[in-house]
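Team,

Forwarding the record for the chain on the shared tracking sheet. I've put the sequence and predicted structure together so nobody has to dig through attachments.
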Amino acid sequence: MIGGRISSANAAFNMLVSSATAGRDDYNTTVLNFTAGSSRWKIDKNKNITTVNGSMITHNVGTFTTTCSIYINAVNTNGTPMSSTTANARWYKVKIYDNGILVRDFIPIKTTTNIYGLWDKVNKVFYKNAGTGTFTGGPAVALTGWHKIKGVWAKTAANTWS
């Protein structure tokens, strides 16, 4: 689902899915299995503590460094997405913090040229799929009424932004 590591034998920061309601959580050199209780997960992975749908998974505190970026929908193993770890998942948002500072705030979007990907609200950067396959989108969401758009509350009609 997400992760980065030098090799399968080295320290890692991963979250892997084994079924719609179960998975494993890797932190440093420990691996803990968990049951999510439903097929829709809310995950908070903060250093050695991971919370899945309100249930806490606690690893021993550890210090480690990896030179690999974290992949979303796969585990980065020394620059290569591990084929057995790619996910078929729906992402609603992904926030990444570095010691309490929000460094990525991803939301799924479709561009005006019909390319699906993740928009980083922090850095104002669009990321298309960098792996295999393609992202697909769900149904369009029609927003009506008051919504926060670019930090400002505005009233919208269906599919019309003001």
